[in-house]
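Next comes one such specimen:
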Amino acid sequence: MSNILITGAAGYIGGSILAEILAKSALLKKDQIFAAVRSDTQVGALSKLGVTVLQLDLTNEEDVAENVARNDINIVIHTSSAIDPKTALYLITALSKQGKVSGKRTYFIHTSGMSAFYKNTGWPAGDFKDTDGVFETEKRLAASFPIRNTDVSVIEHAAAQGVTSFVVVPSLVYGRGSGEWNKLSVVLPVYVEAIISNKAVYKFPGNTKVSAVHISDLTVLYGQIVEKILQEKPIPNGKEGYYFGKAHELFFGDVLDKLAEAMEVRGLLADSTTRVYPDDASAAKILGVPEQFVQILWNSGDDIIPEIPKIVAWKPKWDKEHFFEHIDDEIQDVLDLGKAKSSLIDSLFKATRG
């Protein structure tokens, strides 16, 4: 029997993964599912799901090891910080120790970030297939961007500890999440909040192409990896185990034009005229994010060509046309839910302070 731990289970992605597994997995019962959260309030929000909720300090190596051992965890889906590798490495070490005690194979599914594969963070320009030595390229460039360093550290440490690893790389994620705590993503809600607050739509010069995926499609990808693990079916892992959550492409300029039109129809804007940010400092102030991350997260795109997700039969339902048909939902979600209960922006400000 396998027991699975989902970290960041109160978050947008982690909470939605938990909901996906609860709704669709026929191979896991509720008493085999453990959700790691940070606060008492989050414990209360998730406890009604019938899973075991752990208030776990992932930065405390002893706490991590104790909880993994006590609950006989052999699968971890890690959706917390991809910037600092420390928490991931603690979890992998704990899995390895528990695997030796239980005799079970252990698995670590790590959540990375598409920003590691942007040209303006140092990734090579041009089309790049996920079968064309992603790990080797990340390792060569690891020192130049923290998320790449984390990916490499996770894969190498897992291999050394005898833990099977997978790296899932979400692209721009949109749509209302299905978790119990935070249902809002970051990138588009930040834009929507800024538009409402400033009564104006600002965009960057040019029309940057980005990869995107609906949250419901992304959680299916995680769920299919878990199902293959539970069925003991071999799928790409380790250095070859990069699963890019990329369903379709969008152009940021087009997205903001459509948001402006939808805002005008709602009466949230006087007109749908868009303006251009004069510089990154102005963009950072309007968006409420650190200046050094403005271009990386709000004006960057990739040229990754995903093939590996097809091996687990991942077939996203949402495409560009579907996205634009439902773009008003992105506005409604912010109006309904307010500001995202996300730690990402806080972690970005923390990173700027060193």
Summary: The first strand starts at residue 4 and ends at 6.
